[in-house]
Each structure stands twice: as structure tokens, then as C-alpha cells.
Amino acid sequence: MALIEISTLKHHPINEEIYSLSNIDELAKSIQEVGLLEKLIVNADFEIISGNRRFEALKRLNFEFVEVEIKELSKDDEILYIISYNKQRVKTKRELLNEIKHLSNIWKQKTGRKSKDEMSSNIGTQKTRNKISKELDVSTGNISKLIFIEKTETSFIELIDKDEISINQAYLQCVRINADKQIKKNTTDKSNNNHKDKIDIDYKIFHKSSHSLNEIDDETIQLIFTSPPYWNKRKYTSKNIEIGSEKTPDEYIENLVSHLLDCHRVLKKEGSFYLNLGDTYIDKSLQNIPHRVIIELLKNNWILRNTIIWKKKNYLPQSNKDSLTPSYEFIFHLVKSKHYYYNQIKTPTKSENGKKVKPSIYHREVEEKKLIRKTFTPYFANELKNLNDFWTDDILETATFNQVSLKKLNISIGHPAAFPIDIIILPILQTTQENDIVLDPFSGSGSVGECALKSQRQYIGYEINRNFIELQNKRLQQIISKKNI
Ligand SMILES: C[S@@+](CC[C@H](N)C(=O)[O-])C[C@H]1O[C@@H](n2cnc3c(N)ncnc32)[C@H](O)[C@@H]1O
Fold this sequence. Notes:
- The protein contains 17 helices and 17 strands.
- The longest helix is centred in the middle third of the chain and has 22 residues, at 167-188.
- The protein has an eight-stranded mixed beta sheet with strand order 6-17-16-7-8-12-11-15, with helices on both faces. A five-stranded mixed beta sheet has the order 1-5-3-4-2, sandwiched between helices.
- The chain is α/β, with parallel strands linked by helices.
């Protein structure tokens, strides 16, 4: 410890690079009232490692001497100390980004990946990212988004700091900016046939991530029916744009909700959005992920009309002896406006002879053992009751039949999480009319596409796994050829 003349001290250059010296007057006032509670820490050159704001306040208060502790550290350790001493501080996103860059330079350099003076906007391996996330107590998802935003449109960081735009809004905007740049680049590339990306439907499948739906104009989709990958279940690709492989449920929820932002833009005001989501256990505790996602979506202007229980017929048997076997999933019906299109479908309860019956569309198909018809006929029976929100065998029995019929058509589904197509038919009949466009941003094997085309609707799908693209194209092409016979 030493008593040093204030005029010999200076700000640490790294501190100046990372942090702004804000709220000095307040700090000076508090030092005046209660004194200097913590000593300053400086290096051998009297550059301040801890206490840069206090130093500024002391100067304003005309202090001449101050007690300091001198610490001899390597240059990298000085930076780590500076960041660590600022842990409790309320930081702007700009300051956070500065910290991220410095930490990444140090840690990447330690693994021999980067030269010291290169301040890259790419922070390298997942391991480095995780380490930074832990050190700064910020999710890896937000770290990636901030870096991406800064790289694409750096002025957005200041708008986020002024609370004029959220990280997710800025991120989505940047995704669009990048996609626009890509489209412009493609237009000037003579070898690129631009027509291939135009939507000229019956159906169109895009082999790309659906985080931005740039190919679709605002408010053109009547129905979105989708099932994103659930958290921490299957891995469909090795790509890091894949949803579901985030480190924690919190990251998954944040990522998925921001991923789905563009769905709100493309959906018509009178449109509907059906979202199927499953839950996951951590250490024997269910994480309640579906409802947590919905709570976030409601903050993004969605209206929740129904939480449908899809009682699965073929659920996975469980061997554990201390809990029930999960046998249902949620399907959430969301809308954008209270005035959405809805075609109330009734269910028959009893036939003439008093026995329970299934809705006629399915009934007829099963009895005649025929393939699904070209057009689905909704079963309207005014005197009968409205469909309820607990979907059981009435709907699912025919799913088995439809899977069989697909096999007969020699189409193998080939997707580990394909929908039974019957759970899609009712929403299509309820919320769309012929020729409307149906979208599945996680298209998989194209089950939603199949239902849409068979019910004379049009279809757009997004999928990142190339194998599934081929599978869907084959499947949907077959339906189109049959329709044209
Ligand atoms: C649960 S599966 C959907 C299955 C589909 N409903 C069906 O019936 O076949 C989720 C799909 O989303 C795809 N996927 C994952 N991340 C994606 C992304 N960022 N953009 C588009 N598709 C993605 C996966 O490859 C997978 O095929």
C-alpha cells in the first residue's frame, strides 16, 4: 500500500477502450459523504486497474493524495482484472461488446487461434464463447446476436442502449439486411438463375434456415402449422443454425422466440399459427418449456386462442418407476388479430343407430380402404357439438391409416419426427380456404405440405436438412402429379 500523488496516476488505456466514465458527479457526492471506501489498484506505471471512475471523482473533488495498492501483473491478467472489477457495474451493450472482444482475444490467443492485436468480431470456438458467457453472465445466444448486430449495422448497438430497439428486433433486422445483401449479390451474379427463388406455387421448399422468411411478402400466409425441434432431443444436422441444440432451456426459449419473429410478419391479419411443442426433463424435472415459449410469444403481440392437448396414440413407453408415462403434447393456436378467419367444425357424436362415430371424412376413408381423396370434405353438422380442445383417437386413428396409405404409394416418410398428418387436417379446414398458402418453417418430411396440397391449398416449407428436402419434394411432387391426372 502507498500514498500517491493523484497527479501521477493515469487511466488504464484498456479501461478507456472498454468503459465510459459515466455518473462521476454522483460518485463524487458519495465519496464526499462517506469517504473512499475502497483503495485504488494500479500497475507499476501507475495506470489504474481498479478505480478509474473513483480517480476521476477524486480529481473533481481536488484530492491531492490517494492510497493505492500496486499490483504487478501480465498485460493479459491486467485486462482480466479490469473486467472482473467491473462485474457488478450496470453496463451498456457497447461496453459489454468491448469486454467480449478483449476476452475473446485473450482466450483465443491462449489456444493459439488468433494474433494478439487482432480484434476480431468472430469470437471463435464454442468453448471460448461458453467461457465468455460464464465470465460475463450473459447467454451465448445474446453474445452471438450482439456480435452479429455489430458486424451488420453497428449503429443498432447504440439504439439498443437507448432502449429504442430490443436485441431481438435489431437481430432480426440484421438478418434481413444480410439476406437483402445476399439477394442483391445473387442478382448480379450471372450464373445465378434468380427465377428459382421466386415463389411460384402449388408448393415451394426453401433449403435454408427459417429465422428469416425473406422470400415471403408481408401478410401473405393464411396458416402456419409447425413443430420446431424440441430442446435437447434429436439432432437433425450438424449446422449451428439448427434450433434445439442450445446449452440451456433459457437459451432455447430465447432463440426459438426470436426465430419465430418473422412468422408474425408474414401471417395475414386473418391468419392462424399452430405451434406444436414438447417438453424436456433436466435431472428428473420437467422444464415447462412449451408454456415458457408461449409466455414470451404473447409479449410479441400474439394472441393465444387455444391450448390443444394432442393425446398421442403411439407414445413412447417408459421404463422409469417413479413417474407417469408422458402421452400428450401441446398444440397452441395463436392468432395476430381478434378478427381471424375461423370455420367452426362440428364433430358427430352418435350415428343413427346410437353408436359413436368418427368424423365422416375419416370414416369414409377407412371403410373404403382408399387412399386419401383429392379434396377433404369438412364435416358440418349443425346440430352436433363443436370440436373440443382434447384431440384423441377420433383424429388420430386415421393417422395410422394414412401412414399405411403412404407406404402403399411407396413413399417412405424417412423422418424421425414426422407428424401424423391428421392433426394438420382440422386446422387447415378450420382456418383456411382453397388456394390459401400454408407455411411450415420446420418442414421436415413435408407432412404439412402433403395436407395442404391434398386439401387444395398451397404450401411453403423451410428446411435445413438436405435429405429431408429431397424427401419432401418427392412426396409433394407425387401429390401434384396425382392431382393433375
Ligand atoms: C420436429 S421436425 C419437423 C417434422 C415435421 N413436422 C414432419 O412432419 O416431418 C423439425 C425439423 O426442423 C428442421 N430444422 C431445424 N432447425 C431449422 C432451422 N433453423 N430452419 C429450418 N429448419 C430447421 C430439422 O431439420 C427438422 O427436420
